[in-house]
Amino acid sequence: MFAAFALSFSLMASLFVLQAEAWNSPLPLWEKEWAGGSLESASDVAVAADGSVYTVGYTRNFSTGGGADIDALILKYSRSGSLLWARTWGGMLRDEALGVAYIPRGEFICVVGRTWSFGQGSSDAFILEFSSGGALVWERTWGGPSFDEAVDVAVHAASCSIYVVGRTWSFGVNCDAFALWFFPNGVLTRQLTWGGNSTDVATALAVANNGIYVVGYTSSFIGFPWIYDAFIVKFALSLNPLWEQTWGGTSDEAAHGVAVDSRGKYIYVVGMTQSYTPPVGDFEAFILQLNSNGTLHWCRTWGGPNADTAVGVAVMDTTDIYVVGEAWSFSPTPVRPSAFALHVNSTGNLIDEVAWAGSSAVVSATDVAVGPKPLTGPYIYISGYARCSAPFSYLTLVGGNFVHIVGAPVSVTGNVTPLGVATGAPRGNVQTPTGSQTYLPWQDATLICIWP
Questions:
Q1: Which of 114, 62, 52 is nearest to 85 (CA)?
Q2: Quick check: 286 and 273 in contact, CB under 8 A?
Q3: Which pLDDT tens digit goes with each residue over 355-383?
Q4: pLDDT for 246-285, tens place per residue?
Q5: Residues paired with residue 195 on neighbouring β-strands, in sequence order
Q6: What is the pLDDT of residues 120-155, one digit of tens each?
Q7: What sign for the dihedral angle of Cα 404, 406, 412, 415?
Q8: Is the pTM of this model over 0.85?
């Protein structure tokens, strides 16, 4: 899940993955590095049933164009942090992976993103399936004559149906959110756009047995085209809309992440808000809990005097919620952000807050996933990027303002437009990059294990 609205500056970055175990002020135990000596980054993370971890993003040094542009990057790690394989996918132009999901039937993964190398328009969405051994199974593009990108993917556990969301300028009005439903063999079953008369962007989705939850930001239902609200739309598994809501105030809000608990009872939405901030603050992270009918149970904001935003959320069973993002309020260098992680319980109480920072460079987080639960507690994996060498400074935050707020969601009715766009069949180059696993002094990929 990649929040392009708030993280457009992440192109000058590299990748790291943090693994935390049942918090209580975790400390780094070990670090792994994957370096290209150029531009590497990760935007999403997924965990398989056996505990192996997949991260996706992009690389410049190992691109098909020989460093002239970027290729999609897919990395697989073992549960203990060993790199199992690395792949790139792309063509002669820019190709970037933004989302990844695990497919339990047959041990596959689905990777989505945007490509300038293949497709119909300026850029198209791409959808790839890889085996657990790193072999490309099938590849598709989707789009029209303008700009289209897939930003997130999720899989229905029982049917292994694949759901993809993103944004399109080729179809709908202005910029609309889109949703695609694929069978596991890559056949596109249904497709639609959602939105109003202005800008509507999907940023993330989560799938449960009782439906699909899509979040993002919209300026179509506010009355001011330059102001955004967060939106949450629930679809049936057939992509029929069930309910639609916006959430926000008098300024900008954007939802960047969504997760559902193991029973499908509660939905957690995270993002950034400018409406519900302290008088001296910038924008802050927000966390919402709703039930499956769309009733809001509680709202929280977190942050400090500078800009802080949440970009990813994951739920362990029904009680533990993990939120990650980027904080400018708690960095050793005020002009550089740090990555933060929050542990919140299901009643909206803050349990723990931590951060990782660089002494003079960017460290950020882009998404979070919960792994299989061992005897000692859950494993939490956080994807992200950094423009400094490991080890990162570890901070236990004590000054984040965790505030109870009252922001009521508003029911809206977006235009749902079925589409009949044919998928393309790109022939992307799949390569095995030989990234260094020792530090290179520019933008490195790292894997950090955090132990309590």
A1: 52
A2: yes
A3: 887 766 777 788 888 877 665 556 888 88
A4: 999 989 999 999 999 999 999 999 999 999 987 656 889 9
A5: 415
A6: 888 999 999 999 999 999 999 999 999 999 999 999
A7: negative
A8: yes
| Joined tokens for residue 176 | 């609309």
Identify the burial level of 68 via C-beta atoms within 10 angstroms of its C-beta, where 0-12 means exposed, 13-18 middle and 19 or more buried. exposed
249 exposure class (CB count in 10 Å sphere: 0-12, 13-18, 19+): middle
Tokens 């299901």, residue located: 346
Residue 298 buriedness (CB in 10 A; 0-12 / 13-18 / 19+): middle
Take residue 122 and report the two structure tokens written for it. 């300026």
For residue 391, say if its preceding peptide bond is cis, omega within 30 degrees of 0. Answer: yes
The torsion defined by the Cα of 22, 25, 30 and 31, in degrees rounded to 10, comes to: 100
State how far the Cα of 267 lies from the Cα of 269, in Å rounded to an integer: 7
Q: Can the peptide bond before residue 104 be classed as cis, meaning omega within 30 degrees of 0?
A: no
Tell me how far apart the alpha carbons of residues 143 and 125 are, in angstroms, rounded to a whole number. 6
Q: Which of 322, 326, 366 is nearest to 345 (CA)?
A: 322
